[in-house]
C-alpha cells in the first residue's frame, strides 16, 4: 500500500509514492523505541542539550530541501516555510538551553530532619523523570513547527522520552526529510535511530494502533475536537489510561470597544481581517469570532472594503478545502446573516475568503456559526457593548481571548471572565503569531484543550515527565541530579 | 432521609442521625460556592495565608471534640487521631507558608523583545490561576488528614479554589465538626461560609451529582480503583471533561535481599509485619507484596512468630470488615499458599490479621492474590533473587516500591525498574508513614493513580491551578502578581 502527496496549488501529485505503514510495522517501531528509551532517559543534561542542538543543525542543513518540499506540499509561501524552519530549530535550541540547566528536572531535596512536624522526616529527594515512549500526532497546518519534529516532539525528546510520530499525510515528503535529519543527529550523538520514528499513512486505524498501544505512555496532539475526543476515548478504554495532551479547535473571540474603533478603526479593520486570513485562515489561534458594538456600520464597511482587496493561497488539503466550501455554502443560506467576500482563488485547493456578520442572538440560533471553520473565514457579531460581559460568560473554553480597547475603557470584569475561558488573554493585539517563550500558554480550556498544559513554549516539556521521590537512598545509588555532589550541576532546591 | 454513624468497636450507633443531602441540596451548595469563588481566587497571598492559618487554628481548637468523635467513629487509637489532627493543621500551615511567597503562582514575565528569535515577542506574563469550584471525596482511612479538610481540600483552598467535599459516611460527625471549624475560620477572615461546603450521605448517586455537575472544575479522590474508574468515566462523559486526581489502590511491593536478611532478619521481620498491620492495615501505602529470596525458612518463621503475638483494632466500617473477611476466606482456600495468623479481634468490626506465603508463579495464577486487600494482610512471595528484576518488570503501577538490601547489594537495575513503576522508591525503610514535605511524591502509576500528580506534599496545590498568559496589557490592568511593581511581593521569574 502506498499513497502520494498532492500539491494544493494545482491538485497534482508530488513526489514518489509513500509506503503506508502496516499495524505490524507500527508496533515494531514502538517496540524498538521502547528498547532504546532508557539510553535517552539517562543522558546527562549536557549530552541531552548537545543532541537537541545536533537535531537543530541537522534540520537547518536540510533547509533547501525542506523549502522545496514543504512549499509544494502546503502551497504556503517560501517566507512562511523559511520562518517555520527557523522556529523549529529555535524550539530545539530553547529546550537545549533549558535542559542544560537541569531546571526541568525540578529537583527538590528534603534532608532528613528528626525534628520535623508532624513527624520526623527521612531523606527525600524528588526529580522529574521521562515517561518513556510517547506518540505525537503531527498537525497539517504547521508542516515543520508542529509536525513530526515540531514543538510536541522537541519537548518530548528534551524530556528524555522516545518518540513515535504520526506524519500528517498532507506533507509526507517534508516529514521524511525531517525524519532523516533527526536520525542523523541521533547517530552523530552516538544514540540509536530507533529513538525517533515516524509512521506514514492515510489509514485512520494508525491512530488507534499508536494511541492504544500499551507501550505508549502519553499522546501529544494538535488538531480537531473530533479527533481529540477519539484519542481521549481510546485512552479511557486502555487497560492503563494515559495522558492525552490535545490542543484542538478554538474560536479565539475578540471584543472590540467603541473607543478602540473611534481611535483606530482603519488599522483595526485591517488587522482583524489580516489576522483571520493569515496562513489562509489555517491557524488554531485565528480570530473566529469578532464582537463589535452595535451601530458601527462604517467599521463594517472598512472590514468589507479591506477584505475585498485580498486573496489567499490554496488550503492545505482537498479535505480542508471541501469542508470549508461546504461550511461557507451552508452558512451563506442562514437568514439575517450578512456576507462579505474577498477575491476567489480558483486553482488547486483555492477558496474564497468570506466573513459573516450577524447579531448575537442570530449567531446563537444559527447552526454552525459558533463553530470553528478552518480556513479564511470569521464571524463578526454586533452586540450592545454593555452585553460583552454577559456574552463572554456564555462562550465555551478557548485558546485565546482578545480585547481591543482604549486606555479609557473599563474592562476589568470582561478581562476576568475571559481569563477564566482562555489560556492566553491579549490586549490590543492579534491572537495569531504565537511567541515561543517561557511565559507563553497556548493550551486553554475545553473544548480548545484537553488539559491545562501547553504545547508551545518550554513548559511543554513537563507533559512528558513525572515526579519520582527517592527515600533514604545512599548517595552513590541516587540518580546524579539528586546527589549532594551534584555531578550534573543541575538546579537543586534544598530544604 | 438520615443515616447514623456506627462505632467499629462494637457496631453500636454513634451520635445523632445525620441528614442525607438531596440532589437539590448538593446542587445548591455547588451554586453558592461558585457565586463566591471569585472572592477566594482574588485574595492576596498574605490574606490567603492568614485564612489557611485561621483554619488550622480553628481545627486545633476542636481537638478534644475531634478526638472524642473520631476515636468513636473509627476505633483508631487516640494517639493516632491526635497525630492526624496535628498533621491536618500542619498541612494548612505548610500551604500558608507556600502561598505567602506566591511561588505557587509560578509567575514568569517575558518582557517585550524586538530582537527575539524566531520573531519579535510581545510582553507576555504568565501566572497560575485557581480552577474554580472543585469536588473533594474524603477517604475513610484518614478521618482528618485526608478527610473533608485534609490534604486535598487544604491544597484546593490554598490554590484559591472553593471546595464542596463529600464526607465519608463512616465518620460523619467528625466531618461535621471540621465543617464548623472551617466555616468559622472563613467568617473570621471576612469571607463567605459558602466557599467550603460538605455533603453528607450514603447514596452513591451523590458521587454522580458532584462529579458530573458542570460547575465543578476538578475532582480530588482517594479510594478504591473501582470508584476511581467510575469518577474517570463520569468525567469522560461530561460535556466538558475535567481532571480527576484519583489516588487509588497499591500493592507497594517490597523486595528483600538475602544480604539484608543476613544482616538484620529479626528487625526486618518485625518491621515488615508492623508496617503491614499499621492502622489495622488500612493505609494506601501498606506493603501488600513482600518478595523474599527462596530458602529463607528461618525468616518466614520469624515473620510468623512476630505476627502471632499481634492483634489489631477493628476495621473502619462493616463493609471494609466484610470485604476483608471474604477475601481472606477465599485466599485461604488457594492451593500451595501457606497461612500465618495473628490474634483475632472479636468485637465490632474486628478481624484476624493474616499473612499468605507462596511462590511467584502460584501468586500469578491465584485469583485475588495480586490485588489490594484493605486490612491487616499481606502476601509474602518467595522467588529466586536473580528473578527480582524480571518480576519487578511484570508488576503494575504502584504508589511506592521498596528495596531492603545491604550496601554490598548491586540493585541499580531493580531500582531503575521500580522507579518506572512507582511514585516513590524507598531504601531500607517502610512505605507507611508518609512525610508531608516538598519532595514527597505520593501519586504513582496507574492503577495506583490516575495522573502524575501528588495529593500529599505542597505540590498537591498545582492540581487545582492552571496557567494563564497575559499579553501586552498595561501595568494597571494586570493581576497584581504580574505587575512590575509587584505589590504582593511574590516570586517573579523575569526574562
UniProtKB/TrEMBL annotation, chains A, B:
UniProt organism field: Candidatus Planktophila versatilis
Protein name: NADP-dependent aldehyde dehydrogenase
InterPro entries: Ald_DH/histidinol_DH, Ald_DH_C, Ald_DH_N, Aldehyde_DH_dom, Aldehyde_DH_Superfamily, ALDH_KGSADH
Coiled coil ranges: none
Keyword Oxidoreductase set for record: yes
Aldehyde dehydrogenase domain mapped to chain residues: 3-464
Keywords: Oxidoreductase
Amino acid at each position: 500500500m502506498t499513497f502520494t502527496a498532492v500539491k494544493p496549488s494545482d491538485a497534482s501529485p508530488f513526489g514518489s509514492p509513500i509506503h503506508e505503514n502496516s499495524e505490524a510495522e507500527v508496533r515494531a517501531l514502538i517496540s524498538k523505541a521502547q528498547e532504546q528509551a532508557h539510553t535517552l532517559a539517562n543522558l546527562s543534561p549536557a549530552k541531552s542539550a548537545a543532541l537537541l542542538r545536533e537535531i537543530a543543525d541537522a534540520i537547518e542543513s536540510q533547509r533547501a530541501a525542506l523549502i522545496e518540499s514543504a512549499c509544494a506540499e502546503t502551497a504556503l509561501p517560501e517566507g512562511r516555510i523559511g520562518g517555520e524552519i527557523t522556529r523549529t530549530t529555535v524550539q530545539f535550541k530553547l529546550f537545549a538551553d533549558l535542559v542544560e540547566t537541569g531546571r526541568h528536572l525540578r529537583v527538590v531535596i528534603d534532608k532528613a530532619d528528626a525534628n520535623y512536624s508532624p513527624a520526623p522526616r527521612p531523606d527525600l529527594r524528588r526529580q522529574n523523570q521521562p515517561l518513556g515512549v510517547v506518540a505525537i500526532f503531527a498537525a497539517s497546518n504547521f508542516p515543520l513547527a508542529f509536525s513530526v519534529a515540531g514543538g510536541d516532539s522537541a519537548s518530548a525528546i528534551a524530556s528524555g522520552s522516545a518518540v513515535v510520530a504520526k506524519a500528517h499525510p498532507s506533507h509526507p515528503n517534508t516529514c521524511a526529510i525531517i525524519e532523516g535529519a533527526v536520525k542523523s543527529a541521533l547517530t552523530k550523538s552516538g544514540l540509536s535511530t530507533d529513538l525517533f520514528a515516524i509512521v506514514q499513512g492515510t489509514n485512520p486505524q494508525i491512530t488507534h494502533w499508536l494511541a492504544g498501544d500499551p507501550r505508549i505512555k502519553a499522546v501529544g496532539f494538535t488538531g480537531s475536537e473530533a479527533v481529540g475526543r477519539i484519542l481521549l476515548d481510546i485512552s479511557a478504554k486502555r487497560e492503563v489510561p494515559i495522558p492525552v495532551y490535545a490542543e484542538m479547535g478554538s474560536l479565539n473571540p475578540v471584543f472590540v470597544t467603541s473607543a478602540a474603533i473611534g481611535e483606530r478603526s482603519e488599522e483595526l479593520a485591517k488587522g482583524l481581517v489580516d489576522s483571520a486570513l493569515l496562513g489562509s485562515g489555517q491557524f488554531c489561534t485565528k480570530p473566529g469570532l469578532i464582537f463589535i458594538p452595535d451601530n458601527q456600520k462604517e467599521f463594517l464597511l472598512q472590514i468589507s472594503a479591506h477584505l475585498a482587496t485580498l486573496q489567499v493561497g490554496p488550503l492545505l488539503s482537498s479535505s480542508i478545502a471541501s469542508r470549508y466550501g461546504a461550511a461557507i455554502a451552508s452558512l451563506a443560506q442562514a437568514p439575517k446573516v450578512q456576507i462579505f467576500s474577498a477575491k476567489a482563488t480558483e486553482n488547486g485547493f483555492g477558496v474564497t475568503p468570506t466573513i459573516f456578520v450577524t447579531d448575537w442572538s442570530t449567531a446563537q440560533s444559527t447552526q454552525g456559526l459558533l463553530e470553528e471553520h478552518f480556513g479564511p473565514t470569521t464571524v463578526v457579531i454586533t452586540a450592545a457593548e454593555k452585553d460583552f460581559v454577559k456574552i463572554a460568560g456564555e462562550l465555551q473554553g478557548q485558546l485565546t481571548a482578545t480585547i481591543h480597547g482604549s486606555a479609557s475603557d473599563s474592562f476589568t470584569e470582561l478581562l476576568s471572565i475571559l481569563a477564566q475561558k482562555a489560556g492566553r488573554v491579549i490586549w490590543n493585539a492579534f491572537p495569531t503569531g504565537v511567541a515561543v517563550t517561557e511565559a507563553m500558554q497556548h493550551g486553554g480550556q475545553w473544548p480548545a484543550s484537553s488539559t491545562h498544559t501547553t504545547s508551545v513554549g518550554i513548559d511543554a516539556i513537563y507533559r512528558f515527565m513525572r515526579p519520582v521521590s527517592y527515600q533514604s537512598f545512599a548517595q552513590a545509588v541516587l540518580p546524579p541530579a539528586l546527589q549532594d555532589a551534584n555531578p550534573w550541576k543541575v538546579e537543586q532546591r534544598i530544604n
